[in-house]
Amino acid sequence: MNDIDQIKNVDTTGEDLIILTGVPGSRWSHINKVLMADPTINRSDCNTTYRAHKGSYFGPFDNLRDYSKQELLDIFTQGFEHWNGKKIIKSHWFVYDLDYLAELFPKATIIGVYVPDDVAFRRWKAIGGFDIDYPDYSWFKDDKTMKYRIKEGNAYLLKFFTERGFHFKIYKNYIDMGNEANINITNPFTRNPPSDEWVVKSPLIAIYRDARPLDGRLLRRYLKKSSKFWEWIDDTTIALGKMKS
């Protein structure tokens, strides 16, 4: 019996899972590469590389809540040759149902990667857009739909983390990010001093660990803050403001 067979019907809390998500163009695949610097990460899903996308990317999911925990585990295990070590489970579609994933896998580490809507779209187009080989972006249909989905996905992403008191920030050193996520990153990826170009290229990252109670007031307080951060979030702020907490 191989490792994948052994996990069938096993109820896991997700302690060995790193759930990674972000909208197209958010540079979340770069963060995925950074996380893989931890030698305990299971890299058995990396037998094929498409451009910057390493490992298995899951989805699309029309509605993640239609899947039970066991059904999702069955899907996830199919992307790996074995189930040893920490697994990075990646999907653009996770942004819509992070609360459900946190409920199913309460001990999982959830990492959200954010850049402003327009920056994400421009970068996604620059690296290939619908010509990207993997993952398959045909679900997004056209540029107009992609712009809408990026705005929508960013709004859900920010809502999930801020309502739970986990805020987005830029890490000047990815070792610090790894420490917060309990991941041993051996390459520091030290950044240059902030600049306009640096802000655009550097995603904001939030790390969800040790579940906290949901509090919609945290989102409202976060939206009211006056800072340079919100000056370049643009339409995402509007989208968040319209969402019910």
Provide a concise account of the structure shown:
By secondary structure, this protein is of the alpha/beta class. It contains 11 helices and 6 strands.
Describe this structure in words.
α5 (117-126) crosses α6 (143-162) and α6 (143-162) crosses α11. Mean pLDDT is 75; it is low at 190-201 and 225-245. The chain is an alpha/beta fold and 245 residues long. It has helices at residues 3-6, 28-35, 69-77, 98-104, 117-126, 143-162, 174-181, 196-201, 216-224, 228-231, 235-242; strands at residues 17-22, 49-50, 53-54, 87-90, 109-114, 204-208. It has one domain (13-239). The chain has eleven helices and six strands. The chain starts with a helix and ends with a helix. The radius of gyration is 17 Å and the shape is globular. Strands 4-1-5-6 form a four-stranded mixed β-sheet, sandwiched between helices.
